[in-house]
Structure formats: C-alpha cells, structure tokens
Design goal:
Residues 562-570 have low confidence and may be disordered. The chain is an alpha/beta fold. The chain contains 21 helices and 26 strands. The longest helix is centred in the N-terminal third of the chain and has 18 residues, at 47-64. A hairpin with a 3-residue loop joins strand 13 (344-350) and strand 14.
Length: 645
C-alpha cells in the first residue's frame, strides 16, 4: 500500500495540472502501458515507448499548427488505439485543448462542437465534415526538425451524446481531472479488490471508449496513474472480448450493462442447452451464501469448484473487479455474475460531473441492491425534491465537476462551489447509499401518480428475435402515461416468432406491478433512432410513434398464434440437409434442431460459427449467399432462400 500512498501523495502535493499528471504517469518507464493481440502474438508498449512517441508527435504538432494560438481547440476522433493515447497527450503537451470526439460522430455533432468551441481542425482516420480533416497517419509520419519543450495546455473538452436533444459541451481543467484521479486512492483503500493483481499484473480490458468520461477517467487516467497495463481490443465482438480477456490474463473489466447482461444471457443459454438450469440455480444459491459469509472464501469456491468451467469460457479466471456504468444493469445479471465469482459493482457518473460514486462494499447481497454507493471524496451529493413531481433529484458540486461549459463559442466558467442539477432521480437508504431511479427524460407518470422509470422496465425485457428494444411513454387524455415497447427485429419475423415475442412480454408483465406493465407493443419498420454513440434517442422515437412519422406496426396481445412448422411450403429434404449443416457446425445432434430453430437464440450459436455456416452452405449447395443470406437464421429460412435462387 505504501506504493499507492506515495503516488497519491505526489499528485496531491503538486500543482495538479495535466502536465503534473502526465509526469507521474510516464515515470513508470519500464512498465507495460498498452498491449494488444496481433495474430498469435502480443505486442507490448512500455510507458517509455509511449512517452517517446508523445514527445516526437507533440513537436510535430507544434510545427504543424504553429499558426494557431496556444489553447486552441483541436478535435481527436479515433477509436481506441495506441495512436489515440499518443495524440491525446501530444496535443496537451503542444499547448492545444483536445476535443474528444466519438469515431461515429456525425456532421451535425461535429458542426455543433466546432461552433461551440471554435474547433477548426480534427485529427482522425477518415475525412470529417464540419471541420478541417488532418490524417492521423500524417501526424505520426511527420519528422519535426527539432524537439519542442512543449507549451502545455491544461484543459480537456468532452461532449454529451445528445440522446435527449442537442449535445452539450463541457470542459475540465487539470485541477478537476486531478481531483477525479485522486478519488482512485480512496477507492483502493476501501476495497482492495480494485488493486488486486493476477499473474503478476493488473491488466485493464479496454471495453469503454477513451473519448467517454467513463473510459477516460475510470480507466485510462485512474490506472495509468499507478503504471498499470491496458489491454486493447481489435473489435467489440463478443468472441473477441472473451478471447482477449483470457489470452491476456485480464484482471479488471469496466463496461456498460450490455456486456454484463450479454454474459449472463450466455451462461443461461448454455445451461438450457445442456439441461443444467437447476444445477446452475443451486450453484448460484450456494455461491452467494458462501460469499455473503466470507467474500474471499466464497469466490475461491466459485472459481475453483462451482463455476470453474463457466469462467473458463467467459473472461477467464483472473477478474478481480468489474464495474457496470452508463445505464441500468438487470437484477438477474448482478446475481449471476457475482455468483460465478466476478465481483460486479455499479457506478455512476456523467459527462458533466465525471465519475462520482461506485458501490465499494464486497458482499453480493450489497452488490445486488444496485446501489451506486456514496459520493467520492472530491464532491458532495444533495437530494432536492423536483417541483413538478416531488421526486428527489440529485444535485452535485465539487472540485472534480466540469470547469466550464462551451456554448456558441462562449466559455462559461463553472465554480466548484456551484451546485449542478443532474436531472437524475435518486433515492437514499438509511445507510446513506444512493440508488439511481431514472433520468428525467426516461420517467413517466403512472396511473397511481408515481414516477416510473422506463429504463427499469426496459431492463427486464430481453426477448428472442429482437435486435434491440426501447420503452416509451404514450400520454393519455387524463394526463397519465401508458408504457409501450418498441423493438427492432433481428432478421425476418414470421408469425410464430412474433407470437413468441408477445408471449414473452406477457410473461414479463405478469411479474410487474400493474402500473409498470407494458400496454402496447410496436415492431419497428426502420432502425431505431440513435445518437452517434449508439444510444437510442427515446424522445425522438416517442415523438415519431405519436405522430406516425416513425414506421411501426402495433402488435396485439393474444392475436398471433405460433405458426405450424409443418405447414411451411418448402422441400422437407432440403430442410433436412440444412439441419445436418447446422448440426455439424454446432456439434449437436440433428434431432435437437427443428426447421424453425434460430441459430443464435434457440441453438446458442455464436458469430464465428454463423460465418462458418454461411461458408458451408455456399459450398454444399453451390450458390453464392448474397446480403439476403445474412438475415437467415433457421433451416427453413435458408431453404426458402435456396429455392428462390
């Protein structure tokens, strides 16, 4: 612990600028900063390697943008990679404020950011609308004629996703960033799992994007301060995430709920496939009981006995800590992931205020409450009743909150003593722990007058054959709101699949209070509207459904019937041959596969196996599978496509 105390003391006692944070971070010369897989090899970059590149690229940027005044804003628009880290610090060292942009940011977002901050240039891997494009490869290939000492900027700029309107732009000073980073010292003192090694190192799997406050603060800056290692992903496909975590002996995973929910779904699918659901339930109950008695003993039993094989197929055996943030994680996910011995904590933060709290207790019964813990040392929380609803809204102030807001080129300072309304509804228990209830835009008035979180209802729904779904509110004439569910189908949706979706929602409804139940279901006829970072724009979807401008078909409960598989007008011989293909690829008996068995949802296939299936069908039947083939998922659908060709 002396090592961590020394590092924290160095940051506390310095001037708390970005330059100071940089100097501490890159003092760990020989430690591995970043590593990534390339084929069967692991490529590693030490802190010294990265620092050398930062200094070289920084000098090139000083010369490339010599005409710009110090503290000019330059955009950085790249996916997570070594180059992102180098350019991020090189911009700061060269005296420019980095504007962190999502790789998928569209012209509207870029134009808004340019207008708001005065940003003229964007360093990216592809041409960008709304600003002058600077190819990142040119930045790296530049050969400056001299090394510049650096002018050092002390400001970072981020943008919200704009899911509920126009994106907002916020800046953080070095002092605010240092305050956020110093919170890590408190966290690792309270819960030692946050600093636990696995096979001689702490390796953080980089699932979160660095341009986002969660990925920037809680991943890159927190753990970089202590000279730890970051493992980069080639892509975000589930099989890539699992294989990378195992291959690199990852110990820490911080991610959005989607990852954790997907892991839990995979465990349950495998249990159903192998007929071990009851065994899974018993193991879960025993593991949680042991962990609640003794977290260390319980997790040892879970990892070495109860769930050893399960963990070997997931993130491996080294996960010391996991954090879920950025949305509501399902209750069943918290239960199952903690049961297999992956401690999963819930955290809270926003672009405007940084990472502000995380549940630090260790026992599953506490973690399964989905509390976000208490405010971290750099700030304070306050609950105030909303004047319209009476529900408690979270207000925050402190030195780690944003330092300025950018609006139409104007920089509006924000004092650390100034309270900021998050717009998020919270509750607090008798122990002082905070619980996220919902965002203002995600709340509706129920028939009893209570506020209902659409996210909390949405998190309970995970039907088969649905690519993604969203709960919205439909206002009634009496001022109340009924909850509707809009889903985007995964592939074709014959009647038997629609019936299964509706039957599933009816089952979920039976477990919910009447005021929380879904009253209407719509199948989308177009992709659900989303922001540049993939979040569904709930308000836009709600308005589109209400006005009829968004194409959607209303489905009635009980109106659909499961289609008779024997009535399919296709060749039974062809279907039989395709079932054999499915069976070979999945290594399961052909008798377990029916004409309408879905490759992913009924048979638990994965993306790599699906690609192998497409290749097999092309070779066996001598036909090229066009883009239309990628929407097929059952033997019957492939048979129809083959007959058509």
């Amino acid at each position: 612990m002396k090592f961590y105390d020394r590092v924290i003391r160095d940051l506390q006692n310095g001037d708390r600028t970005l330059r100071h944070l940089y100097e501490i971070t890159f003092s760990f010369s020989s430690e591995i900063y970043l590593e990534e897989s390339r084929g069967m090899d692991i490529v590693r970059y030490t802190y010294a390697d990265v620092k050398k590149e930062i200094e070289r690229v920084s000098s090139g940027l000083c010369q490339r943008f010599a005409h710009l005044p110090q503290n000019s804003v330059i955009g950085l628009k790249l996916p997570n990679c070594v180059e992102w880290v180098v350019i991020f610090w090189a911009l700061i060292r060269a005296g420019f404020k980095p504007m962190l942009l999502a790789p998928a940011a569209d012209e509207t977002n870029l134009t808004h950011c340019a207008r708001g901050t005065g940003m003229e240039y964007v360093i990216s891997d592809k041409a960008v609308p709304g600003a002058v494009f600077v190819d990142y490869k040119e930045v790296f290939s530049a050969k400056p004629d001299r090394l510049c000492e650096g002018r050092w900027a002390d400001h970072i700029i981020l943008s919200t996703s704009g899911t509920t309107g126009e994106p907002k732009i916020f800046g953080y000073s070095g002092k605010a960033i240092a305050a956020q980073t110093l919170n890590s010292g408190y966290i690792i003192n309270v819960n030692k799992s946050f600093r636990r090694f696995y096979k001689g190192a702490i390796r953080q799997l980089v699932v979160l994007p660095f341009y986002h406050i969660f990925g920037l603060s809680a991943v890159l800056l927190w753990y970089g301060l202590f000279g730890r290692t970051f493992v980069l992903l080639k892509d975000l496909r589930p099989d890539t995430i699992l294989a990378t975590a195992q291959y690199h002996n990852v110990s820490h995973v911080f991610a959005v709920p989607l990852l954790w929910d997907s892991l839990a779904d995979g465990i349950m699918r495998e249990a159903k496939k192998t007929g071990q659901v009851e065994k899974l339930k018993k193991g879960t109950k025993l593991s949680l009981a042991l962990q609640n008695f003794s977290p260390a003993l319980g997790r040892f039993v879970a990892s070495k006995l109860l769930f050893k094989s399960v963990r070997s197929r997931l993130l491996g055996d080294g996960i010391s800590i996991g954090i879920s943030g950025g949305g509501a994680v399902r209750p069943d996910t918290l239960e199952l992931i903690n049961a297999i011995g992956y401690p999963l904590h819930v955290g809270y933060g926003m672009t405007e205020i940084g990472i502000t709290s995380v549940e630090l207790r260790k026992k599953p019964r506490d973690l399964m409450e989905a509390s976000v813990g208490k405010a971290l040392p750099s700030l304070e929380y306050q609950l105030r009743p909303d004047p319209e609803t009476g529900a408690n809204v979270l207000w925050v102030r402190g030195e780690s909150c944003f330092s300025a807001r950018y609006i139409n080129g104007e920089v509006i300072p924000h004092s650390e003593d100034e309270w900021y309304c998050t717009g998020d509804f919270f509750r607090q228990d008798e122990k002082g722990n905070y619980f996220f209830v919902g965002r203002n835009a995600d709340m509706v008035n129920g028939s009893s007058g209570e506020l209902i979180s659409l996210v909390s209802v949405e998190s309970r729904i995970n039907p088969k054959y649905v690519l993604r779904g969203c709960c919205i509110g439909r206002e009634l004439s009496d001022g109340q709101t009924e909850i509707c569910y809009v889903f985007e189908p995964a592939g074709s949706m014959p009647d038997f699949r629609l019936a299964r979706v509706m039957e599933y929602i009816e089952q979920v409804n039976a477990t919910l209070p009447d005021t929380h139940r879904i009253k209407r279901v719509y199948m989308a006829g177009a992709p659900l509207p989303e922001s540049y970072n993939g979040k569904i724009k709930r308000s836009e979807l709600t308005a589109g459904i209400a006005s009829g401008e968004f194409p959607a078909t209303r489905l009635e409960f009980g109106a659909l019937r499961t289609a008779n598989e024997n009535a399919e007008e296709i060749s039974s011989q062809l279907v039989s041959e395709l079932i054999d293909c499915f069976a070979d690829i999945l290594n399961v008996p052909a008798e377990e596969i029916r004409p309408n068995s879905h490759f992913l949802y009924d048979l638990s296939g994965n993306s790599m196996q699906y690609l192998a299936l497409l290749d097999r069908i092309e070779k066996d039947f001598g036909i090229p599978l066009t883009a239309e083939g990628n929407s097929c998922a059952t033997p019957a659908e492939f048979a129809q496509l083959i007959e058509k060709q």
